[in-house]
Amino acid sequence: MSETSATTQIEDSVILADVNHLIAQYPPLTKDRHSMKVSVQDGQVTVSGHVQTANTRRYFVDHVKTLDGVKGLDASRFYDDNTIRLEVSKVLPVGLQANLRYGTVIITGEPPENVSLADLQNQILRLAGVEKVIVSIGG
Predict the structure, then answer these.
(1) E strand or H helix at 99, and its extent?
(2) Whole-number Å distance between alpha carbons of 127 and 88
(3) pLDDT reported for residue 139
(4) Per-residue pLDDT tens digits for 106-123
(5) In the CATH hierarchy, which fold is given to the domain comprising 82-137?
(6) What is the arrangement of strands in the sheet containing 96-101, beginning at the earlier edge strand?
(7) DSSP one-letter string for 64-80
(8) 12-79 CATH pick, 3.30.1330, 3.30.1360, 3.30.1340, 3.80.10
(9) Domain range list for the chain
């Protein structure tokens, strides 16, 4: 005699509603929600976009995994500005600063004479999570 296991599969729309509820209940996520995209297919949650802090990103990733019906999470294109800022700072020469807003890097300051701003901009654009680079030098 064989036993059959009845597995209850939660509909993707219910999982998505739970994810949206999670976002609505955590103020930093609520503030960043406009720059996030979430989808669910067959219990697999995919999130992309940006939040401002690593803590917010970690909170979302950790809590989505615990929602009923979630079989997996793809957050490979989900970034936080603080982590991106740290990566950008590794390539910035002395005299330049970077500010970030949802993947947009804004470079200000006084560059050294030997720095090509176009090359620097291209280098920064290659960093994970960077969507756009604005160079605002001079006055």
Answers:
(1) strand 96-101
(2) 8
(3) 56
(4) 999 999 999 999 999 999
(5) Alpha-Beta Plaits (3.30.70)
(6) 96-101, 104-109, 132-137
(7) HTTSTT--EEEEEEEEE
(8) 3.30.1340
(9) 12-79, 82-137
